[in-house]
Amino acid sequence: MPSRRFADGEVVMGRWPGSVLYYEVQVTSYNDVSHLYTVKYKDGTELELKESDIRSQSSFKHRKSQSSSSSPSRRSTSRSRSRSPGRPAKGRRRSASQSREHKDDKKKAIQETNLVALKPSENNTRRYNGEPDSTEGNDTSCVILEQKLKPDLEIERVLEQYSLRPRKEEKKKEEIYSEKKIFETIKTIEKPSSKTKELEFGGRIGAFALMFFMPATVFCLLLMCKQDDPSLMNFPPPFPALENLWETRVFGVFLLWFFLQALFYLLPVGKVVEGLPLSNGRKLQYRINGFYAFILTAAAIGTLLYFQFELHYLYDHFMQFAVSAVAFSLGLSIYLYIRSLKAPEEELAPGGNSGYFVYDFFMGHELNPRIGNFDLKYFCELRPGLIGWVVINLAMLLAEMKIHNQSVPSLSMILVNSFQLLYVVDALWNEEAVLTTMDITHDGFGFMLVVGDLVWVPFVYSLQAFYLVGHPTAISWPVAAAITVLNCIGYYIFRSANSQKNNFRRNPADPKLSYLKFIPTATGKGLLVTGWWGFVRHPNYLGDIIMALAWSLPCGFNHILPYFYVIYFICLLVHREARDEHHCKQKYGLAWERYCQRVPYRIFPYIY
């Protein structure tokens, strides 16, 4: 059995099918049976190549420099130019002989190329368009083509100058440019369509249904919490009169809150960082000042409380605030879709460009809608809803004290407020990490994310605090201690897993991370197989679910309503996990399959 020359992960030069052009590739695996190397080009294309079609970079560069410095064709052409027109025979025989040799070399090189294209994955939306992604690879190919064509062009000029072209060489003009034709053929391969082919959430019908189901679920949960007995036996709750659902003053307070957070976002404080490259290679800039906005918001709320402003006004008009948030979200979604119709193709979201109005309106048609430097999606992701969640929790705490005539809040309310405050502060402190999430890099900003950020987060995530106001639950200190330990475990898994991943991405060679093992991929990144990411594939989701359970336990077990958040969170993370699995399989290919074999459990160890 012949031994292999190239190791997995090694960067080499691989021949492209049907041509003599070499591009930079990375070896991903080797088949001992067929003796073929699986290599990955910089644009993600995977092919199987013979060992004869692969060359090391060092030898490749050496051959290129050698041919450019001592080309026999150049010496022959130079001598032909020095001959007189009266002695053409020898020059003609030499030129014709060299042309025949060069023609044979080209045919042999093309015939020797034997590449077997791997069957693309079922969901692969990226295909090779004939050009490498990197500028370096493109320059190398042009140099090769130039070196192959230059001797023939010199001979062509001499023959035209002295009219020495015999009839049998009339066809050589086309043959001389065969490489150029191959290159142009590769260039004209159809580019992949940017249209969304795989529709999530049940396609158009599912998206249409969710546009009603999401706000209706929020209203239903809030109305159930208002009942004396929020059990399933009393479902559905009585619906209030329509005139009681809207108040202009409440809508004005919501607008004031939204634009106050926008003002904090525009303040020139905090560092400016770049996001991940877009499809056109451009990187957007983001100002990281979410934690500063939180501090300013806390100062503003403290000032209002100092001047005796009744913050429990939020509790008294909670349903009206939810209706105002839905109305504002609908208007913002309509604006976003209308402006997306004029957006360039490269600025559209890969997951919201199906061509169907309902689906694209729901998923978000434009990836990063901006008004100047004001990024609407990035702003809504962390500011109005997430910080508003903390303010609502505080309002519920004050409302509990007032309604039940308490000098201090209940232990259950303190736990809920503390746990969720820690979660929000952590998100704002590590704000930069959100730039690598699917919400920012893949999902468009449409109805789904707008309602999720401005309605779902502040009004559903605060469900436990809202529930405790009307249904106080007493817990003992030992129980509170046990729940606190559970939340700390979840937070530790969540934060340490994310930090482990982020630190490895920034600097894989960090000596502090030397204990981590990983599987190299063709993208240049590694897949961790030790630490938290060797325990389950998505340890951060595991930490999220444990924390969600700890947030609900202070509400007791009288009703299932406070645990809706846990059920919803599990369903949401399972959906995200399935989407992440598909994305990673598409991005990392065979390396992801090896990773899944090494780490079989997705979220729950030994279960799922």
Written overview of the protein:
The protein has 608 residues and is α+β, with helices and mostly antiparallel strands. The chain has three domains: 49 residues, SH3 type barrels (Roll), CATH 2.30.30; 271 residues, no CATH class; 133 residues, no CATH class. 55% of the residues lie in helices and 8% in strands. The protein is built from 22 helices and twelve strands. It has a six-stranded antiparallel sheet with strand order 5-1-2-3-4-6. Strands 7-8 form a two-stranded antiparallel sheet. α7 packs across α12, α7 packs parallel to α17 and α20 runs antiparallel to α21. It is an enzyme of class 1 (oxidoreductase). Its EC number is 1.3.1.70. Pfam families: ERG4_ERG24, LBR_tudor.
Brief synopsis:
By secondary structure, the chain is α+β, with helices and mostly antiparallel strands. The chain contains 22 helices and twelve strands.
On the 0 to 100 scale, the average pLDDT is: 78
- Described by the principal axes of the CA atoms, the overall outline is globular
Q: What percent strand?
A: 5-15%
Distance between the termini: 41 Å
Class computed from helices, strands and strand pairing? alpha+beta
Determine Rg (CA atoms, Å): 32 Å
The description of the largest β-sheet is:
6 strands, antiparallel
Count of separate DSSP helical elements: 22
Low-confidence runs of at least 5 consecutive residues:
63-97, 105-193
* DSSP, total strands: 12
Strand order of the largest sheet: 5-1-2-3-4-6
Biased composition (Low complexity): 66-75
Membrane topology: Multi-pass membrane protein
Region (Disordered): 52-139
Organism: Pterocles burchelli
